Amino acid sequence: MTIILIAAGFFALGLTVVFLFRSTIRADDELDRRWAEVVARRSTRGAPPPAPEDTPEPAEPT
After folding, report:
1. What's the chain's Rg over C-alpha atoms?
2. Treating both helix axes as pointing N-terminal to C-terminal, what angle do 22-44 and 2-20 enclose, rounded to 10 degrees?
3. DSSP assignment of the chain, as one string?
4. Which range of residues forms the domain containing residue 33?
5. Residue 60 falls within a domain, yes or no?
6. pLDDT score, position 43
7. What is the largest CA-CA distance in the chain?
8. In this structure, is residue 62 part of a structural domain?
């Protein structure tokens, strides 16, 4: 019985979080959609691929 009550509590907590942050989740989905559109536009325009973030530093002469 205790396990069922604990599980029900976690379920209720999860639903509460989803309902409270529903607008934030929707806004994040909108940002993801807009970013996907930007990336798609860049690729169709023939833009060069973005530079790699890991650029090796030149070795110092010893």
Report:
1. 23
2. 60
3. -HHHHHHHHHHHHHHHHHHHTHHHHHHHHHHHHHHHHHHHHHHHTTPPPPPPS-PPPPPPP-
4. 2-44
5. no
6. 64
7. 72
8. no
* Structural domains of the chain, count: 1
pLDDT in tens, 13-55: 999 988 888 777 777 778 888 888 888 877 656 556 666 666 6
Q: Give the CB-side neighbour count of residue 50, counting CA atoms within 13 A.
A: 5
| Residue type for position 12 | A
Q: With respect to residue 22, please indicate whether it lies within any of the assigned structural domains.
A: yes
Residue 56 domain flag: no
Which structure tokens are listed for 36? 């996907």
CA distance 57 to 61: 12
Which tokens belong to 18?
Answer: 């989803």
Using the structure block, give the residue that is written with the tokens 């325009």. 45
